[in-house]
Amino acid sequence: MSTPPPTTPRPSVIQLAIKEKAALYAAYIPLFTEGGIFIPTTRDYRLGDDVYVLLSLPDDPQRYPVAGKVAWVTPPKAAGNRTQGVGIRFPADEKSRLLKLKIEEVLGAHLASERPTQTI
């Protein structure tokens, strides 16, 4: 009897609908070259895990699919009352570049704000 080939776990799919600019500002990660997004979740993720995100932006009916990777994890009961969740880094591809531009266009002047975010 032959053993089946090892399967790589399929990336989990997360739907994230961001309804307001303030929420988008708090979740967006401009520090990543390709852009990224913070996703509040109680699920257990590890750095480098593949995550498939269906992202909805404020006032935009379109959903943007992103095949990202977990770039950081905020554990439960993190210091400073930070929200538990994961930071997803967008892949270095054209779709992600356009999504990053779209997010930065939506945020506009908010990007220069000193307001705290859920990110680093």
Characteristic key phrases:
120 residues; alpha+beta; 18% helix
Describe this entry's structure for a reader.
- The chain is of the alpha+beta class and 120 residues long.
- It contains two helices and five strands; from the N terminus they run E-H-E-E-E-E-H.
- The protein has helices spanning 21-27, 94-107, and strands spanning 12-17, 36-40, 50-56, 63-74, 85-89.
- Strands 1-3-4-5-2 form a five-stranded mixed β-sheet.
- A hairpin with a 6-residue loop joins strand 3 and strand 4.
- It is globular, with a radius of gyration of 15 Å.
- The mean pLDDT is 86.
Largest beta-sheet characterization: 5 strands, mixed
Q: Which percent range fits the helix content? A: 10-25%
- Residue-averaged pLDDT, rounded? 86
Which structural category do the helix and sheet elements fall into?
alpha+beta
Identify low-pLDDT runs.
none
Rg, Å, rounded: 15 Å
The shape is globular
Spatial separation of the terminal alpha carbons:
51 Å
What proportion of the residues form beta strands (DSSP E)?
25-35%
Strand order of the largest sheet: 1-3-4-5-2
Number of helices: 2
Q: Count every beta strand, where a strand is a DSSP E run of 2 or more residues.
A: 5
